[in-house]
Design a protein that fits this description.
It is a single chain. By secondary structure, the protein is mostly beta strands. It has a single domain, classed as Trefoil (Acidic Fibroblast Growth Factor, subunit A). The protein contains no helices and 13 strands. Strands 1, 2, 4, 5, 6, 9, 10 and 13 form an eight-stranded antiparallel sheet that branches.
């Protein structure tokens, strides 16, 4: 349901939270790359229920920037970015491999939030054939509206 959450995943480097780097500067469109890192105040994400299983994700402490994604021309992947644009990023939250864990993915193209290896970048990636690479997420309520 709508409210403020911390979203985290278990990695080889421990539990990492979705947010932005404290020192990160916006790109040409005013967007910030979204990363996983240690728990911090930038890790508060507002979830707004749009309808059914569809949500908008907003960075609570960065002017309510909406999370979307863009192609990265350097490495064929798509990065999750926080952007001030009016374009609303719509995401679906579905059950992960374990109870209490979730997967977050795009609505049309079925690209999943994923963290690969030691990288801190949050990317969206198509499901691997065996689903081995898709990250499962904890979505922990901080407070309701």
């Amino acid at each position: 349901s709508s409210g403020l959450y911390k979203i985290s995943t278990q990695t080889p480097n421990g539990k990492l939270f979705v947010g932005v780097r404290p020192d990160s500067s916006p790109d040409v469109t005013g967007g910030f790359p979204v990363i996983v890192g240690p728990e911090s105040s930038s890790a508060i994400i507002e979830l707004r229920l749009l309808d059914g299983l569809k949500y908008e994700f907003l960075l609570y402490h960065h002017g309510g920037q909406s999370l979307g994604y863009k192609m990265n021309q350097f490495d064929k992947g798509c990065e999750v970015i926080a952007s001030p644009g009016r374009e609303v990023g719509e995401w679906m939250i579905t059950q992960g491999r374990n109870p209490e864990k979730y997967r977050i993915h795009t609505i049309q193209s079925n690209l999943f939030w994923t963290v690969k290896g030691d990288s801190s970048a949050l990317i969206v990636s198509p499901p691997e054939p065996e689903g081995g690479e898709i990250s499962d997420w904890d979505i922990e309520l901080q407070w309701n509206d």
